[in-house]
Design a protein that fits this description.
- Among the domains are: about 180 residues, no CATH class; about 100 residues, no CATH class; about 90 residues.
- Helices cover about 75% and strands about 0% of the residues.
- It is built from 23 helices and no strands.
- Helix 12 packs parallel to helix 15.
- The two termini are about 55 Å apart.
- About 5% of the residues have low confidence.
């Protein structure tokens, strides 16, 4: 800094001399500006952390254990009437409600002293209220379905309000676990799967609304997983013959889940991104697995069609926020693409499409991928499940075609490998036009096209000499076209055909062949190699001239 100031003083002196020489008058020099000095910021004062606010693992463990024991005590108190009947159901329910109210009031009273530790008591009280309502409706039949559903909603809202008041996600998750575990604690007294579904629907609505209110997706997502897994398990335990109820409830839960996902995006104008969508993907897979494993056993003729038809509501729920916000929704696109890939691959390809036509249908994968690349998208990062499904179907059938295995009943079998060759070469021409965006796709398509063409020649001709001749013509044709089109990649790819021709000559043509056949193969391959070398030299010269 001192050096800079010296240079500035020197410049000011020279300017003053020039002005004096020219007879110019100048303004009085400005007052000297204060120089700024930099000093490290003062360390902020740390808040007073008294022992009562410090986190302690031992006290936290004791608090959780105490809250859980109180919940279990209330559960067994409610269930005690079924076993012994020493108190009337109404009195036991009243005691449970009184105990839950005491826990909530105590937690609210202690909130000013230690909010984190005091919040365990209201959470336990809310779980007890869930158990009380469940027992009053299913075990004692004191209240009907409509008042019970309303009571469950009120308790859900109350527990989530406490979560908001105590500013911790842990209590809301505790309320979610407490509500969805209630049927397992008290399932022995009821076999009515429809009434259990009422509670699951009410809880799904309550936690979805709380997610919209708080701006966090984790609440409806946790309710979704517990709802799908819990009701499936309860179906096995309570009423495994009522498959229609299971199908309707699972479809309703999936629809509710998709609705909350779209409503959250619209409400908070926060599109579902790819990392958040990855937490939703297992739920989509579970729904498809549970729903159509049950339907496949009871409605085998309609299951596949129902699976394909179920893509439409998912797509509509994706389009609504997409059109409303007019912004890309990569996460929602990923979920729809993932579900569509499962339904199309499993129900459309494996179930509905006859086996004999599956290889020919796989040929559509390359044109479909080309159309996808040409389609004007804002973002294509969410379409990889569909592309992965198309790639898997195409790869399996391509390998079977060039190996000539497991395809005895395919119509027009001799033309199948040739059709793969044509689609691959067409795909290479398409990728060559978009070389800047797809630099490696053209290499892969061209190499696979050569393999398919060589496999097709091996399947069409029976003579080793004819196959070698066809391979040589393919290599020379690649070099000739490369020279005409100035296509460096096409010219270099011909070396792959020459290399495979040499391998075939050494390991197959010269092994256990008649003398005339050996001579013929050597002559054909030798002439091909020499002509190929001459063409390749001309191609390299043209490349240097360009």
């Amino acid at each position: 800094m001192d050096d800079v100031h010296k240079r500035l003083d020197t410049l000011e002196k020279r300017l003053q001399q020039i002005e004096d020489h020219l007879g110019m008058t100048c303004l009085p020099p400005p007052a000297e500006e204060p120089r700024f000095t930099f000093s490290p910021p003062a360390t902020p004062e740390t808040p007073d952390a008294s022992p009562k606010h410090r986190g302690n693992p031992v006290t936290g463990l004791l608090g959780w254990c105490g809250a859980m024991l109180l919940v279990l005590a209330a559960a067994y108190l409610i269930k005690l009437a079924v076993d012994t009947g020493w108190l009337t159901p109404l009195r036991q329910l009243a005691l449970a409600v009184l105990g839950a109210g005491s826990l909530i009031a105590t937690g609210l009273a202690l909130r000013r002293n230690d909010r984190g530790y005091a919040g365990l008591l209201p959470a336990a009280g809310m779980v007890i209220l869930f158990l009380t309502l469940y027992a009053a409706h299913l075990h004692y039949h004191l209240i009907g379905p409509l008042p019970t559903g309303a009571g469950i909603l009120v308790v859900c809202v109350g527990s989530l309000l406490l979560c908001r008041l105590f500013a911790s996600d842990l209590y809301a998750l505790f309320a979610v676990l407490g509500s969805y575990s209630a049927p397992f604690l008290l399932h022995s007294g009821s076999r009515d799967l429809g009434r259990i579904a009422l509670f699951y629907g009410a809880w799904g609505i309550g936690f979805g609304l709380f997610s919209l209110w708080t701006g966090r997706r984790r609440y409806y997502l946790a309710a979704l997983y517990l709802g799908l897994l819990g009701f499936q398990l309860l179906w096995y335990i309570v009423a495994p013959l009522h498959w229609r109820t299971l199908g309707l409830v699972q479809a309703g839960q999936a629809t509710l889940f998709a609705t909350w996902t779209a409503a959250f995006t619209l409400r908070h104008r926060r599109p579902l991104d790819i990392p958040a969508a990855l937490f939703h993907l297992p739920a989509v897979a579970l729904f498809y697995l549970f729903q159509f494993s049950v339907l496949g056993s009871h409605l085998p003729r309609l299951t596949a069609w129902l699976a394909l038809a179920s893509i439409l509501p998912f797509w509509i729920l994706f389009l609504v926020p997409r059109l409303a916000l007019r912004v890309p929704l990569p996460g929602g696109r990923l979920l729809v693409s993932f579900y569509a890939a499962m339904a199309l691959f499993h129900s459309g390809y494996l179930v509905l499409l006859p086996t004999r036509w599956q290889p020919w249908a796989a040929l559509l994968a390359v044109p479909l991928a080309a159309c996808w690349l040409r389609w004007p998208h804002h973002s294509k990062s969410g379409d990889w499940p569909l592309l992965a499904g198309l790639g898997s179907v195409w790869s399996v059938n391509f390998l079977a075609a060039i190996a000539n295995r497991h395809l005895p009943v395919v119509p027009a079998r001799p033309l199948l490998t040739s059709a793969f060759t044509v689609t691959l070469y067409a795909g290479y021409l398409f990728a060559r036009q978009r070389q800047s965006r797809l630099p490696h796709l053209g290499i892969a398509l061209l190499s696979l096209g050569h393999l398919a063409a060589m496999a097709a020649a091996s399947q069409i001709f029976d003579s080793r000499l004819a196959i070698s001749l066809a391979w040589g013509v393919l290599a020379l044709a690649c070099l000739a076209l490369a020279g005409i089109r100035r296509d460096r990649l096409l010219g270099q790819s011909s070396l792959l055909v020459f290399a495979l021709s040499a391998v075939k000559l050494v390991f197959f043509d010269l092994d256990r062949a008649a003398p005339l056949m050996r001579i013929g193969c050597l002559v054909v391959v030798g002439i091909t190699f020499y002509a190929g070398g001459w063409l390749y030299r001309r191609f390299v010269i043209l490349q240097h001239i360009d």
